[in-house]
Design goal:
- The two termini are about 35 Å apart.
- The longest helix is centred in the first third of the chain and has 28 residues, at about 70-95.
- A hairpin with a 2-residue loop joins strand 1 (about 60) and strand 2.
- The strands form three sheets. Strands 3, 4, 5, 6, 7, 10, 11 and 12 form an eight-stranded mixed β-sheet that branches. Strands 1-2 form a two-stranded antiparallel sheet.
- It is of the alpha/beta class.
- It is built from 14 helices and twelve strands.
- It folds into three domains: about 5-95, Winged helix-like DNA-binding domain superfamily/Winged helix DNA-binding domain (Arc Repressor Mutant, subunit A, Orthogonal Bundle), CATH 1.10.10.10; about 100-170 and about 280-345, Periplasmic binding protein-like II (D-Maltodextrin-Binding Protein, domain 2, 3-Layer(aba) Sandwich), CATH 3.40.190.10; about 180-275, D-Maltodextrin-Binding Protein, domain 2 (3-Layer(aba) Sandwich).
- The radius of gyration is 26 Å and the shape is elongated.
Length: about 350
């Protein structure tokens, strides 16, 4: 941090930020003073000090109240972010008082959350009830970015041909299947090439999903348009649309197996090489993760190793332990079980 940055931090008072936000929300120094149980003159003085500290005018003052300047609008955005971060910090620290012994921030894509994580995380929490896991669902590209930026300790996603300099470990494999209504003309098929699917209307996930991007790339390679009729955000919604004759779509095999109660549907094996996909755990450095996060990585690695249907026989999952993880965890994903899997986009 530059000396000028440190000086700015010293000049900014958190109480003044809180009062500034209150004034902005209520549009009046007097009403903000009443809400915050402080004299209006004291609020006005703190606002003046805040303007002096930032070196710019933050509020236009008039007889009916106050109005934000452009600089004030910028400060309001950042002040809310700072105050929210403080509230989150207090909440997490309070949990340590209540017996929580650690936090692990996990970002994962929808396939990992649907196919593997409920059982794996449930078992981990039963064994380590003092460790809190904050799990968020994101697209694979966003998972990689969050881990790289330190917003997540661990990510679980499709890393494509590269994990972007992050360390990675195998977590699971799945295969995309074509899902059709039981009455569909293709329902008698046991397998199919994707170029034959392009003749039909398709129900897809949202544009940034790995399945959607993979279909778009395959359609481009085939030189044919993708008849994307509807896009949804959830696998269950896709199944319901397909069951009601709106089109056909691609789903991971394990996810479809968990949704057998959603309509009268039939799964057809997709022959294309890119249909075989690999889920990986990613971290900036497994060896330097906090102890609770390393414990979770060990647990997930063991779960993957003991589930013989989850990983191909060629994959060896060695759970990282302390500093040794840096050498055990590859910075590049293991070779895919199919030649085209490396073409999968990082999303």
């Amino acid at each position: 941090m530059k000396s000028s940055d440190r000086s700015f931090v010293r000049r900014i008072d958190l109480m003044s930020l809180q009062l500034f936000v209150a004034v902005c929300e209520l549009g009046s120094i007097g009403r903000a003073a009443e809400r915050e149980f402080i004299a209006a003159s004291a609020v006005s003085k703190r606002l003046s000090d805040l303007e002096a500290a930032t070196g710019t005018t933050l509020l236009y003052r008039h007889s009916r109240g106050v109005r934000l300047t452009p600089a004030g609008e910028s400060l309001l955005h950042h002040a809310r972010t700072v105050l929210f971060g403080l509230e989150k910090m207090q909440s997490e620290l309070d949990e340590y008082t209540d017996g929580v012994r650690g936090h692990v921030r996990v970002h994962a894509n929808i396939s990992a959350i649907v196919e593997f994580l409920p059982e794996d995380l449930g078992d981990f929490i039963r064994r380590h009830d003092g460790i809190k896991i904050d799990l968020e669902e994101h697209l694979s590209a966003d998972v990689l970015h969050a881990v790289a930026e330190g917003a997540a300790d661990i990510g679980i996603c499709y890393a494509g041909g590269s994990a972007g300099g992050l360390q990675s470990l195998p977590y699971g494999h799945d295969r995309l299947m074509l899902i059709v209504p039981a009455s569909h003309a293709l329902a008698s098929r046991t397998d199919i090439d994707f170029h034959d699917v392009l003749e039909h209307d398709i129900i897809g996930l949202h544009a940034g999903s790995s399945i959607s991007l993979a279909m778009q790339q395959a359609a481009v390679r085939a030189g044919r348009p993708l008849k994307l009729r509807i896009q949804v955000t959830g696998l269950d919604a896709m199944c319901r649309m397909i069951d009601n004759g709106m089109g056909i779509g691609l789903l991971p095999d394990r996810a479809f197996a968990l949704m057998q109660g959603v309509g009268q549907l039939h799964a057809i094996r997709l022959n294309d090489a890119w249909a075989a996909r690999e889920l990986r755990m990613v971290a900036r450095d497994f060896g330097t993760l906090p102890t609770p996060a390393r414990m979770l990585v060990d647990h997930l690695s063991a779960a993957a190793r003991h589930d013989h249907d989850r990983l191909p026989a060629s994959d060896t999952v060695t759970p990282p332990a302390g500093k040794a993880a840096a050498s055990q965890a590859s910075r590049q994903p293991a070779p895919s079980p199919s030649a085209g899997a490396a073409l999968l986009p990082q999303a």
